[in-house]
Amino acid sequence: MMKRLLHIFSLGLALISSCLAEQKGEFMEQTVIIFKPDAMQQGRVGAILQRFEEMHFHISGIKMVQLSEAILREHYAHLADKPFFGDIVEFMSSAPVVIMVLEGENVIEEVREMTGETDSRLAEKGTIRGDFGKDKGQNMIHASDSVVGARAEVLRFFEPAELFPLRHNLAD
Predict the structure, then answer these.
(1) Cα–Cα distance measured from residue 21 to residue 167, given in angstroms and rounded to the nearest whole number
(2) What is the pTM of this model?
(3) CATH architecture of the domain formed by 28-162
(4) Rounded mean pLDDT of 99-118?
(5) In this structure, what DSSP letter does residue 124 have?
(6) Residue closest to 138 by CA, chosen among 102, 90, 106, 170
(7) From the candidates 7, 58, 78, 142, which is the catalytic residue?
(8) Which residues neighbour 108 within 8 Å (Cβ) at sequence distance 6 or greater?
(9) Active-site residue flag, 142
């Protein structure tokens, strides 16, 4: 219980800190990308990563990890009451994944557009899910859906020492 409270407190402090940095013009919008087990197994990480690089987004953190059930339950807590929740946790813990933080102007919205519909069968061709995905479950990647969501995900998956943000004056 105490560990959970400390985690919530540290999330709050980090959100306040990033809001202050944003007000000073030091914050560049970030998003978290998770290359899901299907992307890993099908060898699609490079092709998908290349699309992000071509958009000139900065990679400020990237690593390969095996996600635990505990972190997946936290990450997908908003879906805990859905009948497919167990399937998501099982799938996402079935193989290592690559997790990345991208930053850039309007990166969340642009990445969401590049990603396409959650159900790959409905995603337009030319989007990541439309070109590589199979269905709603095996859709290659996760991308943050909002600034607040992205900030929480960065803190969930990365230690500060694992991030190398682009540092420049946004007024230049």
Answers:
(1) 12
(2) 0.82
(3) 2-Layer Sandwich (3.30)
(4) 97
(5) P
(6) 90
(7) 142
(8) 29, 31, 143, 144, 145, 146, 147, 150
(9) yes
